[in-house]
Amino acid sequence: MTDNGRVETGTKDGVGTITFFHPKGNSLPGSILAELAAAVEKLGGDDGVKVIVLRSDGSGAFCAGASFSELQSISDEAAGKKFFLGFARLILAMIRCPKFIVARVQGKTVGGGVGVLAASDYAIATEECSVRLSELAVGIGPFVVGPAIEKKIGLAAFTQLAVSASWRHAAWARTHGLYSELHPTIEEADAAVTALAQRLVASNPEAMAKMKKTFWEGTDSWETLLDERAAASGKLVLSDFARKAVAAAK
Question: What structural domains and CATH numbers belong to the chain?
Answer without folding.
Answer: 6-201 (3.90.226.10)
